[in-house]
Write a structure and sequence with these properties.
It is built from 7 helices and no strands. It is mostly helical.
């Protein structure tokens, strides 16, 4: 049969109101008319929800024809309720069972045995610790290790004492007498040689300050003359000066003769 023409419940024979597809995205105006339209649509939505709730209640109470989904839901609910009832009965029966008579006593006995064995092992450990409190470790063999550690400690102390004594001895050592004097003597010799070289340089500078470059250029050379040499040098300078003046005097006579000849020629 076509469900379109099948029998329907009275609540299904009405036209269901649905909002337009464009209403959700349409522009919502602010005029009184737009406000009234929105209020009207909200009222329609409320009435539609109320109608659907009444229809579901009518179908649930078995008034009219049920849908397939509702029938399946009722079947599943019935099976679920039966399972819960069976579980309750099982719990009720289990609450009256004697576990010891039903076989649980074996497990309990095994656990009790384990517990007793663990208690005995702990007691043994406590007794062992009590005995070890009175044990002499030196007499029990630990003395060998302790003696070895004591020997190492004494040897280390002796080595440190030797090092301290060596440091004290080195504080009183004369390095010059211990061989360092050779190095010091060599350094002193180098220092004296350096001082002599510097002194020679200073003396040479002093001699150069009295050096006469003129006598050196004219061939005699050497340092500045002494007193006698200075007198001879002055005499030579005077002779040279007189010779130069005489040369200048001869030049004047020649100039006068030339002037006289020029005057004579002019008179002619």
């Amino acid at each position: 049969n076509d469900p379109k023409y099948d029998f329907k419940a009275p609540e299904e024979n009405i036209r269901k109101w649905e909002p337009k597809k464009w209403e959700d995205s349409a522009f919502q105006g602010v005029s009184p008319f737009d406000f009234a339209m929105r209020q009207k649509n909200e009222e329609k939505k409320r009435k539609e929800r109320e109608r659907e709730a009444k229809a579901r209640m009518y179908n649930y109470e078995g008034k009219g024809v049920q849908t397939l989904s509702e029938a399946n839901a009722k079947k599943v609910n019935t099976q679920y309720q039966e399972g819960k009832q069976a579980a309750r009965q099982q719990k009720e029966v289990a609450s009256k069972v004697n576990m010891a008579a039903a076989g649980f006593g074996v497990e309990q006995a095994a656990r009790n045995a384990d517990h007793e064995r663990e208690k005995a092992w702990k007691e043994v450990q406590r007794a062992e610790r009590e005995k070890q409190k009175d044990v002499n470790m030196a007499a029990a063999g630990f003395g060998v290790e302790q003696a070895a550690r004591n020997a190492d400690h004494e040897r280390e102390k002796a080595w440190k004492e030797t090092g301290r004594n060596q440091v004290k001895q080195n504080t009183n050592v004369n390095m010059a007498a211990a061989g360092f004097g050779v190095e010091q003597a060599a350094r002193n010799a180098d220092f004296q040689r350096d001082q002599a070289w510097k002194e020679t340089g200073r003396n040479q500078i002093k001699q150069n300050t009295n050096f006469d470059m003129a006598r050196s250029l004219f061939g005699s050379g050497g340092a500045a003359p002494a007193d006698d040499e200075e007198e001879e040098f002055e005499e030579e300078v005077e002779e040279v000066t007189e010779e130069i003046e005489q040369l200048h005097v001869g030049d004047d006579e020649e100039e006068e003769e030339e002037e006289e000849e020029e005057e004579y020629e002019e008179e002619d």
